Fold these 3 entries.
Entry 1:
Amino acid sequence: MCQATTVGFVIAPILGFGKDEWILPTKSYVPYSVSKILPYAATYLQQTAALFYAVMLNVSFDSLVYGFTIHACAKWSTLSFLIMSQATAVGLVMAPILGLGKGEWFLPTKSYVPYSISEIFPYVATYLQQAAALFYAIMLNVSFDSLVYGFTIHACGQIEYAVVFLIYEFTILDAVEVIRTRDHIHELTEGLFLGLTFLTLSVKYANFLLRENKVSELLDYLRIKMCQPKNSTEQLIMEEHNRKAKWSTVSFMMISFATGLGFMITPALGLLTKNEHVLPLKSYIPYSVSNLFIYLATYLQQFITLFYGIMLNVSFDSLIYGFIIHTCAQIELMCHRLTENLNCISSERKSQTNVSIEECVRHHLLVKILTRLLSFEFLSMLLYLSGMLLQLFYYCWYGNELELKSKGIATAIYSSDWTKVTPQDRKSLIFIMINSQKGIMFSYHGIFALSLNTFTWICRTSYSAYNLLQQASN
């Protein structure tokens, strides 16, 4: 990929050479004139060599880090597999020793022995022989299996690079096609509507890589003991929100793949019925697809790009939905615990009351930390529009649910038997109620908040813009 980029930089000046343009591969300060062929050729070769070796060194240094990371993962996999296998072997070897205390003479493995082991010496010799055979068999088995695991991990890493390359390549080629067809409104619109989706996906992927540590931090917060259900009622609350998250992901995945299937089937039908070589996606293709083999290869490449693009796009968006839904679940857990604890309060359990309120306050603060760490990015054409609207609707719907759940904390306190608590505890409860009335809302510096009002505003504004463009085109 890097060398292909280098070739592009090197070839571009050669293409302009026939137009008497003296352009160098890279933009840098040259303290002499390159208007003559000899200085130009020397500078061109010098920059080509510098670019080539710079790419080689850059890739080598980065690949060195990747290699060490992959080999470290392989070592951990080998170690864990070895520990599990050795634990099994220890169990097989120790079982006969424990049986000796009961007068039972049996060996670690079930195999044919052509002599009697009723005496101690033949038994011990056979026992040691089988233990050694078992040990070395496990060592060889782990070595061969770990070799396969290593190749598998390496292949998975290469597949990941290939998928990322396909997505970014399509995004770049689509941008080139948009620039080429900027004077033709129909072709420009056709290239933009998918190109912007892939551009957004590229930004999402880069954002995910930059904020991977924060995602891990969010998952760690959700795994702590305070956020786990403590009884059957809380377990039901968590299961309900888990079902919501799964349903959102599955529905979005289904409509996205239905859209992708529509894009893929239309060119296939055109090929079978009219022998038309039309590609599924509108992008710049620097070669002719009139040949059937070249057309099928390009069709397959675009199919893979679209398939993994849908998978990644749905995964990134569903990750956000999932975090919002689980944040709502934590607020509902907190309301349930607050109501339950206050209803069980008696005058003899003042210390437990303070502990319960403190736990709810800590839980509320934890939920606020979760919301601070979250970050967002905001028949084929009909399905595509439905997918985009569903994507936007999920963001706004669950953002609105989070706001309602957070404001419901005060209702949970009112529903409890708060009259039995002490004046000091009432002050704590009042503080919680006042703080909860602000609500938890996702927004970009207070401008675009994730709510149903925002969703309807976007729909109205989009429709108004569509009408304006339609009137202007007429």
Note: Residues 37-100 form the longest helix (64 residues).
Entry 2:
Amino acid sequence: MLPALVSRRSRAQTSPSAVSLDELVQCPHCQSSKLFKGRRGLNIHIGRCHKLFNNHPFPSSLPATSHSVPLSSVISALKNSIPIVKRIPRGARYTDATSLSKTIDRCVSENSRSSWESLLSFSYNVLHVDKNDSNHSLTSQIKSNCSRPSITSIIESKVNDGDLKGAARILFFSDTAAPNSLDTLASAGVLDGITPQNLKDLVMSAPSGLHAGLLTSITRLVNLMLGGKVNSEATATLYGANLCALAKKDGSVKPIAIGTTFRRLASKICCKHILPSLFNHFS
């Protein structure tokens, strides 16, 4: 019986239904390089070992990427299909910060299309929310879709997110978001999904308050960007911007360009560094 059992096992290992290396997935929350059998195996692992992420399973709708597809199209498809959390739970911030640090380090060291794709899609892989929301009924969701949010609720949301400047801008600014129309077709927010508040939460996620590893990784990334050494396949997405339509008082539409968070961060650091010389030059 033993030889027959061994023969069956060998046939099972070489059967066409066996999981190939292309179907093995690495957990984005673990520091080890252990691989799991497909999305289902990864979701089982996350449910057992990362209960904080149990309500936000790994998305199964990530499109298969190809080098023939522009990177901007890949990230845009993720943005249109995967929602992102506004604030990262405190218990998950340190783990996410460590994962983001590793992703950035890989991006700086390899500077390849795949590494930049991993960085620009980080929020859709890690910071997504569950589409199957059991806390809200279909009726309440439909009612919510029919009603437009009031200025008060938008300001309260900004204050709750810690964006006091954004709340003040909405309160004293006369322009509003333009309604959906042919004039505003294809306008959208930032592509990479990660917000400045998300980045701030992750940087300040360590028990001592500051995640030194992530801060070092971001510094290396900014230096790479300021040195003009970004992979050419990622420049159009990294340095590009999406247009957000604002309706002005006179009825016209004002386009606002929103760049990626890492590009905006590098720009602010660069401007702050050269500000004294510009002040002396133009004074």
Note: Residues 21 and 134 are 34 Å apart (CA to CA).
Entry 3:
Amino acid sequence: MKNYYILSIILLLTSIVFSQKITPKESKIEKVTVFLAGASIERSSVIAVIPGENLLLFNNLSPDIDESSIQISGLGNATITAINFNVDYLEQKQVSEDYKNLELKMDAILLEKNTLENLLNGFQEELALLKKNQRINSDATDLSLEKVKEMSSYYRKRTTEIGQEIYAINLEINTKAKEIENHRLELSKLESSKKEARGEVAIKLNALKTESLQLKIKYNITTAGWFPSYDIRAKEVGKPLAVSYKANVFQQSGSDWENVLVVLSTGDPNTNNVKPILPTKYLNFTNRNYTTNYPVRSSNYKYNPTIKSVTGIVTDESGYPIPGVNVIETGTSNGTQSDFDGNYYLSIRGGRELAYSYVGYETLNYPIYATTMNVKMIPDGNALQEVVVTGHGIKKENKALGYSATSIESLLAGKVSGVNVSNQNGLTGAANTIKIRGTNSFSSNNDALYVIDGVPYSRNNFSGVYGNLDSARDFDLDPDQIESVDILKGTAATTLYGTEGRNGVIVITTKGGKGIENASGNYKETGITNTQFEIKGFQNIKSNTEITVIEIDNFNLEANYNYYVAPELNENVFLTATATNWEKFDLLQGEGNVYFEDAYAGKTIINPQATTDSLVISLGIDPSIIVKRERLDNFKKSSFLGGYRIIENEYQIEIKNNKRTSIQLVVEDRIPVSQNKEIKVSDVVTSGSNYDTEKGIMKWEIQLLPNETTKKEFSYTLKYPKNKKITL
């Protein structure tokens, strides 16, 4: 009953606020923090208040505001009693100057086109009249020969002139039509899908005196983000790689960002940050419809709206291609299948994610992040009903942390006054709750709001902005990294953090180190879970479908250069650069444009998620190294023994270095591996290679002098039933 009474009061206050006519207040976007998915907007407004109740309305805002993220600061002695967000579908977005200018230009071109069409109609009418008059005159019997010649000459000349005029006018009309179409395309880029709806925030506050307030309004939106890309330049083999780290920023919030400070964050507030608790796994019999929850796969892939088509190879856990894998654009009927070699191609039709599915494997979902998306399928253990699976305890070495991971709860327990830390049910590993004494006690969900380095985290579901945080927070923090812990209660909490701070706020500030200025002049600050880049100067980012490219950093990477070839698949030799010490630059997964010796060499994928300490970058094909792979026919023999066919194969790989410098070349080839006991592979000769018997991969590391040629040979014998075919 008590909760019902309080809810009634809140609804009454809200209705009072929005039932009155309020003059909208002006506000300006000052700063934008763009996440990988989403953005935080900071607006400022100078407001004069009087003693008592004041009603404020801020309109012409984005309609995509997450209401629970709204924060108001700069209140002085005033206090907020009600706040609400609404979408006004009657108010239209103010048309930008660029849009107006394009409309005016297109109207002028339309007028010119209509004038030409009217002129064309006039000439066509004149031509029709000439033809009609010519027939009338031909019926006259009193015309002299000279008169006939004169009239014929006139008709011929005038008809020719009109025909030329009509042809020229048609050319001009076609040109104008193309100009109109181009202007329409440009207008479509400037049009926002939400231009007919505008957001507005209404605030009710009480002031103690007449004063001028410098209000700061902060809120989150989901219709913005950024994705990384790279320009990688290698002047010559042996020189460091020059890397330009770029951010591709997009926003369709319905509001242009004009002359704003931009901060780029590598964080993603959509990610669920709840630490999982691993329970005991109990085995029992169940029905065939039982399904197992798959784990959340670690991934930093982010949607790239510029991708129009995707190609790639689908392989199994051993690297072998899988034919027939379904590749579907999520939310559409658009899809394809991988071919016999695991290759696939798909044109994108507006989707944001691809789903990969195949019998016996987990369905994998990845955002469309690059033009090349190679996927390794993961076996589905549930599909193997009659197979005994043994865990071999494969151990992966962890990097030393250098400290003991400690939860926020244990840091605060008994060390910060006014804070009560308790276990919900007394069980080991169960979630703890943190409550600040003196705050709401009538709500069943009265956990405090966490703010770590300025980023709020609460137990509530922030409509997808902060993830579904429905259990106690268990961040792993290094105690030595915590600079200070502050407790906010009452109006101090709600003033800064809105309604989400009504149960109190625990503000944790980490040391994080002072930000540093990088080579691009941007200010870089590294926190515990993300990195922020404060971009120098002011930026203008329109609300449309275009991408704004901002350079984050540029730096050199020391690299070791190697050449690689797998002639059974491709006889072209690829140059790769293996870079080290790249971790300090906080790179993200992204596509890179590669330039070698000042020429464009293609695209590559930067994958910082790899567990190796080095970053391998493909620099393209070097045509000055020639590789030929051929079967030696003089050695090839096929014979029969009983019910078996026996085939002896020998191959030769010839390599020539036509460069003027020595090279280090890695050559890989393979011996087939049998998956059936009736197929035997024997008499394997690998010519001194590093041979992996399980995978059948041979590897040669060859040093070649200028103009040097070398040869490698290998052979094997196959034996299998003569009435069967094999996948050779």
Note: Confidence is low (pLDDT under 50) at residues 12-19, 383-406, 426-431, 459-474.
